[in-house]
Write a structure and sequence with these properties.
Helix content: 25-40%
Structural class: alpha+beta
Number of domains: 2
Number of strands: 19
Number of helices: 12
Bound molecules: aspartic acid
CATH class of the largest domain: Alpha Beta
Largest sheet: 8 strands, mixed
CATH architecture of the largest domain: 2-Layer Sandwich
Radius of gyration: 28 Å
Distance between the termini: 59 Å
Strand content: 25-35%
CATH superfamily of the largest domain: Bira Bifunctional Protein, Domain 2
Length: 467
């Protein structure tokens, strides 16, 4: 007999079926044992009675919660009054005649039938594979899958193609520290993990791809602060020949359609999405991530807005130097090179953010595609001509072979999902997140590597934390 999913039992009254899954709970009523059996599709009630099969009944008595079992049995309508309208299979139960135990399970480290917020997070993350059995986390992963699928389908429908770009790459200046990967073959050299596919997607525009997207993993080695992860997922987009308005229009339609389709209980506060300039946002709300809701406690209201016309540069007090507000590839609104170099405080950029309920969920820009403008920006940021050549030579060189005007945007998928799923942290919408201090408690990472590995990589550890 072939195994079927539990959700199908509702339509199989009177049939013999084979099911498999985890024993969620066990109840014993006098001479009857009930299992709630859980698989990826749902929960079914399994019944064992000694009068039908003494041996099987004795076997069922040994089983404990979370054991993985296979059941063969007959699907029966539950007696009147014993039905559970709350679940899809609530009118049925399975009268077992075969029970196979695939594996036993220790007592799980915490309950999984609650929403789990009350449990120590360290404990949950250490045993994430158990924690994901919790209906809330499973629901979040399913919602994530559906949202990504929706975005993919939407963009494909608009003529975009998904292109993968390298994860082993070169340092990119996007404002954070890079994670670096030592090279075994080239002693003393390092790859860097991408902070975003920024330069690759621009190179794809030079390559004539025109409409690119990617569900891209981005890596930023930032000090733990707020609700961040050292790696996160971005829906990354780039288009050639579009104006800012066309990009914002695509972003708005994508979000509005997605909410309508997947989160119909949510209400978009205002459409078209309000557009504020950076200046207006700062003056009116004191932040470039304004929460424009009147009642901030209404969890089902989604207040999207665009913030545009950001300053091109910002002074980084900590580093005592000028930096790019978004990234150096952003196109300044002026083409006056002297102004770009000498008037940094007042140069505006073709940069835009999408803000949702006070959280920045997407950021993007039109890019400088004229080499002299891009070079002027780099110079304003303090790069010497030599450094520009060394770090960005490939991009500038590509622009000599026919570059279209282009621009794009990256959506922080984790943050968007946390908002629409009413989750307090992005860790709740990521299958295997790291802790707030960047550790993977389940895999125990970061961790030591062997002396041999270090030797092969031509590395010496000066001081180990433990010493
Ligand atoms: N690369 C940018 C970021 O990660 C997004 C973009 O400008 O498209 O913020």
């Amino acid at each position: 007999m072939e195994r079927i999913l539990i959700k199908e039992t509702g339509r199989r009254s009177g049939e013999k079926v084979k099911l498999a899954g985890w024993v969620r709970s066990i109840r014993s009523h006098g001479k009857i044992i009930f299992f709630d059996l859980r698989d990826a599709s749902g929960v079914a009630q399994i019944v064992f009675t000694p009068k039908d099969n003494e041996e099987l009944y004795e076997k069922a008595k040994e089983v404990r919660p979370e054991w993985v079992v296979e059941i063969e049995g007959e699907v029966k309508e539950r007696p009147e009054g014993m039905q559970n309208q709350g679940i899809e299979t609530g009118n049925m139960e399975i009268k077992a005649f075969v029970l196979n135990v695939f594996s036993q399970a220790k007592t799980i480290p915490f309950p999984i039938d609650t929403d789990g917020y009350e449990i120590n997070e360290k404990n949950r993350l250490e045993h994430r594979y158990v924690d994901i059995r919790r209906p809330r986390i499973k629901r979040n992963l399913e919602a994530r899958h559906k949202a990504i699928k929706f975005m993919r389908d939407f963009l494909v429908n608009e003529g975009f193609i998904e292109v993968e770009t390298p994860v082993l790459t070169k340092s990119t200046p996007e404002g954070a520290r890079d994670f670096v990967v030592p090279s075994r073959n080239y002693s003393g050299k390092f790859y860097a993990l991408p902070q975003s596919p920024q330069q690759y997607k621009q190179l794809l525009m030079v390559a004539g791809v025109e409409k690119y997207f990617q569900v891209a993993r981005c890596f930023r080695d930032e000090d733990p602060r707020g609700d961040r992860q050292p790696e996160f997922t971005q829906m990354d987009i780039e288009v050639a020949f579009w104006e800012q308005k066309e990009i914002l229009d695509l972003v708005e339609r994508l979000h509005a359609d997605l909410i309508k389709e997947l989160f119909p209980g949510k209400k978009i506060m205002k459409s078209p999405f309000p557009v504020l300039t950076y200046k207006e946002a700062m003056e009116k709300y004191g932040t470039d991530r304004p929460d424009i809701r009147k009642d901030k406690n209404d969890a089902d209201e989604l207040a999207f807005c665009f913030v545009v016309d950001f300053p091109m540069f910002e002074y980084k007090e900590g580093d005592k130097r000028w930096g790019a507000m978004h990234n150096p590839f952003t196109r300044p609104q002026t083409e006056d090179i002297e102004e770009i170099k000498n008037n940094k405080e007042s140069v505006l950029a073709h940069q835009y953010d999408l803000v949702l309920n006070g959280q920045e969920i997407a950021g993007g820009a039109l890019r400088s595609y004229k080499p002299d403008i891009l070079e002027a920006v780099f110079e304003s940021l303090g790069y010497s001509k030599e450094e520009i050549k060394k770090q960005f030579g490939h991009l500038l060189q590509s622009f000599e072979y026919g570059v279209p005007p282009h621009g794009g945007i990256g959506f922080g998928l984790d943050r968007f999902l946390a908002v629409v799923l009413n989750e307090p942290s992005i860790r709740e919408v990521i299958a295997f997140p790291k802790t707030g201090d960047n550790k993977d408690l389940m895999m125990d990472s970061p961790s030591d590597v062997s002396k041999e590995q270090l030797k092969e990589l031509h590395l010496k550890i000066e001081k180990n934390e433990k010493e």
